[in-house]
């Protein structure tokens, strides 16, 4: 049912007198960014979060750079209106195609997942496989970042167009998903990779499936863990670490709130209150 907003007024507006208490903005095309959110809960338990899922326009991984850039600009503009103190792009496609551009356009700390993930991958192995959305794979963002850190490693990338829709549809345990995963991993296994990078924040949700198909020696790298570690360092450097108890996480989507809530419950352990926002008109309604 719809409820009166618990977020009305200035509940989240600490930007003037106590900027450290302002929320962190986290966004993704859907539930994939919940892997980053869970890491924030673990590593930064005092931080308040606004989570935005652009579910009306997912998947991002088949979009052009121009489309992604437009979407990211709209989301960041909305995040600024919410007076967040920092934004984490919990989306590899956005990080690959838009991060460097929007960092020049917005007076706001913005973190992407690719560089932290690349750094972690290089520490793990020398034969690195990357599974990603087609757009991220095509951008070569991970390969370039990894080779800049260590030119001696070898990197192979595979675009996985079916993964995000299957995860958003709660089909992780579907036998079809296992067969799709097998087909995506096959060329990487032929290269005898020793490390596999989740090149999309949705993909850690597939960990049981992927692990069942991979040799035990292959290390899995989840960039979500490492981008939150970088977030923690940046907050400390900027003097923005919150030491007060956090406010309830806001969940906001551009599409169907019921579908997001149903998909999110298995990752959050509860059914979230989900707001719906029209980024063009910033009209908000809520579903509990």
From TrEMBL:
Gene Ontology MF term list: glutamate racemase activity
UniProt EC number: 5.1.1.3
Catalytic reaction(s) noted: L-glutamate = D-glutamate
InterPro entries for this protein: Asp/Glu/hydantoin_racemase, Asp/Glu_race, Asp/Glu_racemase_AS_1, Asp/Glu_racemase_AS_2, Glu_race
GO BP terms in the entry: cell wall organization; peptidoglycan biosynthetic process; regulation of cell shape
Pathway: Cell wall biogenesis; peptidoglycan biosynthesis
Catalytic site positions: 91 (proton donor/acceptor), 200 (proton donor/acceptor)
Domain of life: Bacteria
Record-listed substrate binding positions: 28-29, 60-61, 92-93, 201-202
Keywords assigned: Cell shape, Cell wall biogenesis/degradation, Isomerase, Peptidoglycan synthesis
Similarity comment text for this entry: Belongs to the aspartate/glutamate racemases family.
Chain's role: Provides the (R)-glutamate required for cell wall biosynthesis.
Annotated protein name in UniProt: Glutamate racemase
UniProt organism field: Nostoc piscinale CENA21
Underlying gene: murI
């Amino acid at each position: 049912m719809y409820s009166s907003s618990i977020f009305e007024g200035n509940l989240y507006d600490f930007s003037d007198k106590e900027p450290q208490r302002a929320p962190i903005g986290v966004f993704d095309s859907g539930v994939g960014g919940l892997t980053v959110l869970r890491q924030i809960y673990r590593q930064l338990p005092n931080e308040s979060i606004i989570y935005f899922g652009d579910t009306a326009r997912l998947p991002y991984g088949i979009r052009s750079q121009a489309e992604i850039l437009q979407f990211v600009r709209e989301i960041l503009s909305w995040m600024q209106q919410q007076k967040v103190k920092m934004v984490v792009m919990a989306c590899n496609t956005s990080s690959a195609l838009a991060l460097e551009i929007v960092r020049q356009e917005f007076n706001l700390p913005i973190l992407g997942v690719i560089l932290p993930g690349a750094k972690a991958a290089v520490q793990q192995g020398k034969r690195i496989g990357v599974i990603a959305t087609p757009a991220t794979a095509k951008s070569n963002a991970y390969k370039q970042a990894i080779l800049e850190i260590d030119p001696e490693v070898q990197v192979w990338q595979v675009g996985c167009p079916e993964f995000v829709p299957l995860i958003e549809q709660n089909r992780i345990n579907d036998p079809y998903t296992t067969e799709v995963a097998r087909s995506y991993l096959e060329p990487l296994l032929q290269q005898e990779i020793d490390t596999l990078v989740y090149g999309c924040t949705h993909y850690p949700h597939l960990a049981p499936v992927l692990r069942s198909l991979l040799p035990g020696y292959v290390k899995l790298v989840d960039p979500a863990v490492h981008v939150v570690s970088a977030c923690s360092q940046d907050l400390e450097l900027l003097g923005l670490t919150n030491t007060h108890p956090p406010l309830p996480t806001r969940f906001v989507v551009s599409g169907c709130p019921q579908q997001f809530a149903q998909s999110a419950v298995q990752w959050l352990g509860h059914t979230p209150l989900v707001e719906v926002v029209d980024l063009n008109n910033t009209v908000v309604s809520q579903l509990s």
